[in-house]
User: Fold these one by one.
Assistant:
Number 1:
Amino acid sequence: MKTENKFFEAIESVAFNKEHKTLLQQKLNTCVNHTTVAKSFYSDLELARTRASFLKSKSLDNLDKYLIEFESNFIKKGGKVIWAQDNDEAIKELTKLIEKKSAKVVAKNRALISEELDLVNQLKVNSINCVESDVGNYIQNLAGELSYHPVFPTLNQSQKNIAEILKSDLISDNSIHARDIAASICIKIKQQLKEAQISLLGVNFLVADAGAAVIIENEANSAQLASLTKTQVFLAGIEDIIPSLNELDLFIHLYGTYSIGSAAYPYTHIVSGQKQNDETFGPEDVYVILIDNGRSDVLAQTNQRSALSCIRCGACHNVCPVYRTIGGHAYQSVYNGPIGSVLTPLMKGRDEYKFLSYATVSSQELLAACPVKIDCAKLLQHNRTESIKLAPPGKTEKLSVFFWKTAMLKRSNMDKGGAKLKNFMMRQFFKKSWGERREMPQVAPKSFNQLWRERKGIK
Ligand code: SF4
């Protein structure tokens, strides 16, 4: 089935599901309320957003320089950097590394990049067991689903659903109390993590001048994982770089504010190379895999480049009416919501994913919601223009637009034919695109022009 058809099929099953919609709206409203409160703690939020936007643009415009600076600083402290052109190369390098260490069990943290790599399944093909350290991802894995939201993977699951998913795995007494569920999962995850020999950690940021990988988290899963494994592998997209450690606090606070509505996450880990002789903690062997996988193509398009500034806070998802209706899985991409609709066609090909360029609204609300001022609406407009250039409209569409334009530009043309004929034509032309579940608007029996003339007595 074509990806576009899968998209429409998925929409059909979720958009009219009242239970799903209510759950999604409730959870997203809570996110919006929390972020609104957190934003009020800034004395000058606008300045912080402008600075963050500028720094991300600067990083992307000088990406080659900052990546090399990062690599050289990371290597200085005993770290190793692997460059991967695409997913296949990243998995190949990772597998080689795991085999070299004779590891059979590895563990990962919550990160979209590992879903982009399809890490768990790809490693399974090579007989490597990849266990999960994050509760949300653990549940979604059991359900056979991808993360629903960049920050809240289980956004689509009710407490009852989660209990159902965990029934065969953990819960024997049908308990659906949240505390029991969380406790059971944590025990199980802890047991599994003990077997892991290597940790695979998706990062939030890479810092060029410090040669450091940064992870920000709520529950110290990555920290726990890192403390259990001597070898640590950080997975990063090339766009995750920021120039300097001095700027990290700006991004940490913006990320906390816009993702969970808190001034900062409880845990921030900064790892710059392997454990030094005078240090107590740290990895004995540490790697960063820098993954391109289509990002250079986005970078090459200067007017679309800003999409790579995304720090994956999910704030645009929370306010997007389309995401709020169809949720995260319909998009057919790990990167969903408005920013996913921008990035996916650029990274994975316009031919297959151009339909996503229409999967959000052109609203200034998306720009206002974004901590790094990405103008998703403008970027989507551009995507649409490019998609049309790739597949120009056929003769029938051109002819229809010609007639429509001719009719619209002249009042006397618009007034021709009665309401019945116009309603008939509307039904014929727009029945399919209007959908079966919406009522087609009706042309009134008398036009405004006719009513005006009658009232004024004009013949
Ligand atoms: S586009 Fe902006 S608001 Fe949306 S996830 Fe990325 S950083 Fe957050």
Number 2:
Amino acid sequence: MKTNKICPECGSKEVEVGEFKGYGSLFKRKAIIKSSEVDAYFCVNCGYVLTLKVRKPEKFL
Ligand SMILES: [Zn+2]
């Protein structure tokens, strides 16, 4: 998935979104049942990770 973000490290516009699933998911402490995938915006050119974003933050309320 392409984004309109620009890498602050190398200036590349080749920023894509990946995701962490399974072991990479963010779990609420002491509440293992609650988890969400985490989207990672990263630069394809240099590998810099711009942003990590929890996809369903409302799960942790
Ligand atoms: Zn870059």
Number 3:
Amino acid sequence: MNISILGGGGFLGRKLAAELARRGRLGATPITGLTLFDIAAPPAPPGAAFPVRAIAGDLAALPEAAIPPGTGAVFHLAAVVSAQAEADYALGMRVNLHGTLQVIDACRRLRESAPAAAPPRVVFTSSVASFSGGQGASLPDDARQVPANSYGAEKAAAELLLGDASRRGYLDAVSLRLPTIVVRPGRPNRAASSFFSAIIREPLLGLPAELPVAEDFAAWLASPRRAVDWLLHAAAMDGAPLGLDRGVNPPGLRMTVGGMLAALEAVRPGASALVTRVPDPEIAAIVGTWPAGFAPVRAPALGFAAHEGFEDVVRAFIADDLAATRAERGLAP
Ligand SMILES: NC(=O)c1ccc[n+]([C@@H]2O[C@H](COP(=O)([O-])OP(=O)(O)OC[C@H]3O[C@@H](n4cnc5c(N)ncnc54)[C@H](O)[C@@H]3O)[C@@H](O)[C@H]2O)c1
């Protein structure tokens, strides 16, 4: 099978490409080629036993080579993420909505040129930010998507259009409403959710971190390993049981900040002392609209794996990303 990853140079795109290279298969089907597309040509994953093609370009002017003829699965991860899409309305709309329309059009053209071929599976990374509800929420699978920011609105709109394109047979979409992914490697960034990763990553690097919300603040989280595993399952699963409803709330993990810090302390005693409470009402207001919990029933029934505990999330970050993050930031090993 030929696979494309749009946004293949990003955090999840790189991890997904590495896992595809490691497995060599999507479900039971051998991978015969991988196309990686991003603003800058993404690096090829090490050890791939299949040809990898890296392409640079803009999703909103999607080049044909990004989803070449014969593509069986497309991971559509390319996006302007939450804080940036809120700060720059035009950019968010252009990439997150009009870019997704380009993906649909590319798949439609492929179908029209090869009507006998099965439509490509398109795995779309939607977000919990397409919902609201706040701290008290435990949203059922059929909760309405009422976003509290432009990014969430663009994700919800893209889901709706991908669902219609699936009904028309242009493609075969599965939209995963991903939780906030923790622990993100690298550096703190300006995303409102940045602190969820920083309060684990920075102390493990021996650096201080600020906590802008109270310790009883809860969030719906997933680890990078679990997110990649869900993406691969979404690409390989039988789509028939989804029917017209192509959106899936995967089984994330509801954690309070205090619970996260307790897990950090259990894995690395003393580390949580590097976290200082510095209230930030602006950040608290943004993350406070996101639903703190879901009650997913459909995703487990569809075979999406349950989430591991948070101590395992911390250990996985140490095993997978700590050394690379130290090197990237010029910190002593
Ligand atoms: N990380 C999270 O916590 C999280 C949570 C929910 C949903 N998601 C979604 O998962 C996906 C991947 O997230 P991530 O954390 O890897 O983000 P990321 O920012 O690391 O990766 C997104 C990639 O999209 C690329 N991109 C942006 N605009 C583009 C354009 N015009 N043309 C081509 N490429 C473009 C970026 O260069 C980047 O490499 C995104 O769709 C995001 O909205 C992420």
